[in-house]
Amino acid sequence: MPNSSTSSPPPLRTAGQQLRRRSWAEPWKIKMVEPIRLTTADQRAAALTAAGYNTFLLRSEDVYIDLLTDSGTSAMSDWQWAGLMLGDEAYAGSKNFYHLEDTVRRHYGYRHLIPTHQGRGAEHILSQILIRPGDTVPGNMYFTTTRYHQEHAGARFVDVVIDAAHDPADPHPFKGNVDLAKLEHVLTTAERVPYVCLAATVNMAGGQPVSLANARAVRELCSRHGVPVMLDATRAVENAWFIKCREPGCADRTCADILREFCSYTDGCTMSGKKDPLVNIGGWLSLNDDALADKARNLVVVYEGLHTYGGMAGRDMEAMARGIEESVQDDHMRARVGQVEYLGELLQSAGVPIVVPVGGHAIYLDARRFYPDMPQDQFPAQMLAAELYLDAGVRAMERGIVSAGRDVRTGQHHFPKLELVRLTIPRRVYTQAHMDVVAESVEAVYHQPRKPRGLRMVYEPEYLRFFQARFEPI
Ligand code: F0G
To answer: Which residue among 272, 284, 316 has the greatest number of ligand 1 atoms within 8 angstroms of its CB, and so is best to mutate?
Structure first.
C-alpha cells in the first residue's frame, strides 16, 4: 500500500543499491463493483440542509466516499457469498449455528455462544442478566450503545481508561489500557460492581489498543475482587494486530494466537459481527459460566429469537463463521490496518491534526484544532463532518459532545475532552486512490480561510441523540 500513487515518489533504488523498501498490496482482487457518483456542490448543500446537518440523516446515494462507519459496511469474499447459498433456514438447530459456535470457540475460546442480531442486542442481554439498579460498571472509556444499556439496566458507568486516552496528541502505544489504580479505586469503593467492561480496541479514543500485559493485569486485579471481566470484542482482532506490532515479544506470534490469549483473560464477550467478522449484520454474546449462559438463553428468546439463531438467518451465521476465519489471518489484518495507516500518513504529512497513534479502524480528526475558537456546545465536530461532506461528498461521523449525550442524573451535556470527527474505513471496500481523494478533501477543509461559526441543535432525541439530532448553522 504505501507505494503512493501521488506525483513523483522518491526513487526506490539508486544504481547499485538494494531496494530501500518493498511495497505490499491487499491479499485480494476485485470481482464485482458498485458504482458511486460525485455530486455537485449545490446538490450537497441541499442534501445537507435536508439532513439537518447530521451525516446520519443523509441518503447514501448522495454520498461519494462513505466513511461514516466500518459497521456492516465490509465487502464479503467469494467464499462468504458461497456460504450464503448453504444457509440452513431451520427455525431450530441450524447447521450454520453449530459451525458458528465451533468457529467462535476455536478463535475466541469461550464456552457458550448466544447469537444476537448485532452487538447492542448482546449488550442488552448481558446488562439485563448482570446489572442491578445502583450498580457501578467500570470500563476503558464509554461506547454509546454499551453505556446506554448499562444505564438502562440501572448502573452508573465509570471511566477507568488511562489519562493518555483523553489526549489526542499523546503517542502512548496502548492508549486503550485500563488505569489499574483507577480500577482498584472503583472496585474497593463502589457498593457493587457486577463486571468490568473491557473494550479492545477503544472506539471513542480513536480505535486505540489494549496491551496483553494490561489485560492480564486487569484479570488478576478483578480475580482478587471476585469480579468478572466482560470483553467488548468488536475489534479484538485489530487489537491483536497492534499487540503483534507493538508489544515486546509478540512480533513472531500470529493474530489468531494473540487473540486466544487475550480472550482467555476475560469471562465472556459481547460482539458486533459487523466489524472484525466481515459481515453486514450479526453479533453474539459469549460466556464461560454455565448458569449465566442459561439466563442469557432465557432472555434471548424474548428479545432476539431462538437461542440457535438470535435474530440472524442461517445464511448470515454461515457468512459470519467464514468471516471470522478470514479476519484472523495476518495478511488480512496487515492490509486492513495498513490502509488506515496510509490515510493517517497522508494527513499527518499535510499537517492536519489527527489523533495519534493512528488506530485500527479509522482516522480521527481533532475538531478543536480545526476550529480553535468554536465553543464545544456549538458542536465543532458536527460542523466539521458537515463541512467535509460539502467539500467533496465524503461522509464522516461526529464523535464528540453530540455522541457523548447527557448525564442521566443532572441532564447536562457530557463535555468530553475529545471532540473528534471519525473517518472510518470499511474493510476491503475502497482503494488507495479513494484514500488520496479523502486526504486532499480534508486538507482543503483544514486550510479553508473562512471558518464556520458552529451549529445549534434544533431537535434532540431522548436516546442516543447523535443518530437523529437535527442542527442549523448559527
Ligand atoms: N461496541 C463497539 C466498540 C462498537 O463500535 C459498536 C458499534 C458496538 C459495540 C455496537 O454494535 O452496532 O452491532 O449494535 N459501533 C458502530 C460504529 C455503530 O459506527 O462505531 P452494533
So the answer is: 272
- Cα separations in angstroms, 332 against 3, 254, 324, 379, 435: 18, 12, 11, 36, 18
Question: pLDDT per residue over 329-345, tens digit each?
Answer: 999 999 999 999 999 99
Q: Is the alpha carbon torsion for 81, 86, 91, 93 positive or negative? A: negative
All domains in the chain, ordered by first residue = 41-63+330-473 (3.90.1150.10), 78-327 (3.40.640.10)
Distance 119 CA to ligand 1 centre (A): 6
pLDDT band at 272 (very low <50, low <70, confident <90, very high): very high
Cα separation, 230 vs 149, whole angstroms: 14
Distance CA 417, CA 420 (A): 9
Instruction: Please report which residue ranges of 109-197 form alpha helices under DSSP H.
Output: 119-130, 144-152, 180-189
Query: Is 91 in the active site?
Result: yes
CB 313 within 8 A of CB 117: no
115 lines ligand 1 (CB under 6 A): no
Phi, psi of 423 (to 5 degrees): -100, 100
For the segment 50-84, what is each residue's pLDDT rounded down to a tens digit? 999 999 999 999 999 999 999 999 999 999 999 99
User: For position 20, what pLDDT does the model report?
Assistant: 72
Q: Are 354 and 364 a contacting pair, CB within 8 Å?
A: yes
The CB of 274 under 6 Å from ligand 1? The reply is yes
At 181, is the secondary structure helix, strand, or coil? helix
Give me the catalytic one of 110, 389, 446, 466: 466
466 catalytic per annotation: yes
